[in-house]
Design goal:
With about 350 residues, this protein is α+β, with helices and mostly antiparallel strands. Helices cover about 40% and strands about 20% of the residues. It folds into 2 domains: about 90 residues; about 230 residues, 2-Layer Sandwich (BirA Bifunctional Protein, domain 2). Strand 7 and strand 8 form a beta hairpin. It is rod-shaped, with a radius of gyration of 44 Å. Bound molecules: phenylalanine. Phenylalanine (PHE) binds next to strand 9 and strand 10.
Amino acid sequence: MEEKIAALRAELEADRAAVHTKEDLSAFWQKYLSKNGSVTGLTKSLRDVPKEERPAAGKTINAFKVWAEGEYQALSAEIEKAELAARNKAETVDITLPGTRRETGALHPITRVKNEIIDVFAGMGFEIFEGPEIEDDDHNFTRLNVPKNHPARDMQDTFYVAEDIVLRTHTSPGQIRTMDTHKPPIKVLVPGRVFRSDSDATHSPMFHQMEGLVVDRGITLCDLQGMLDKFVQALFGADVRTRLRPSYFPFTEPSVEVDVSCFECGGKGCPLCKHTGWIEVLGGGVVHQNVLRNCGVDPEEYSGFAFGIGIERIAMLKYGINNIGLMTENDLRFLKQFKD
Ligand code: PHE
């Protein structure tokens, strides 16, 4: 029995040195201390020991068992400690490292200018109204005093979706839609996307407009200019002035083209204003009496003014953008310049 135990001790000690992981440890336990383990097996072999030697042999076996179990406990504690240390090491955070920055987005220049325009007019008591991008011929043309086959239809290169259905060529149908649903006094702003079959450095088949419409008693062209003065000063600076030039739109009479004094050179002449001192920014006029009548508004009692602002045009002027294509290309190098 003594030799048997000595041999087992030597084997166990050799194996113990190779235990490094939880898996090794459980294999060690299986081999020596489980029900079928060799240390446990010693008790069974007591049967073969002569009766008088059994008590002493039993003692020796028990002492060996206690020792083996102690070895197992020590190993287990060691592995536990090593695993905890490894885990702590893996989870260590270096608080001196720079943090990961979250990139923030920015508003598109069109949205910025649109919001800015809305802010100015909202301050004057205008309400916002939006109409559909797909319009019928009636709202887009006919009731705006542009009858079928009228030569003025050529002014806007129209995308037809079907007979009498168009992608709206301007936000002016918003005038009809507000007058259909609201009684004067009316003061609305109609922002939206519009579409024309036209494309070059300053024209895009899809662009944005902002329509303005005021209908009340005694409204004149002077009211339009007064309001636009305030608008361009808010947008381009307190020193700019407006100039009205006669123009033609079928839905306004008289019609005007509105210029601002060049905010780049103060009116002396520079490349931005093509050396004229003035920059064209929008079209407008006094609402044509036929348009009022088409919406059931009595022109003897009410009058109004309307204007249409090209948002891309304002944004290009304001930020010095020379190609309208940049607005829709989504080039981050361009868009990131509008972060504030
Ligand atoms: N709808 C016109 C255009 O797109 C602009 C305009 C609006 C003119 C309102 C007069 C009055 O060209």
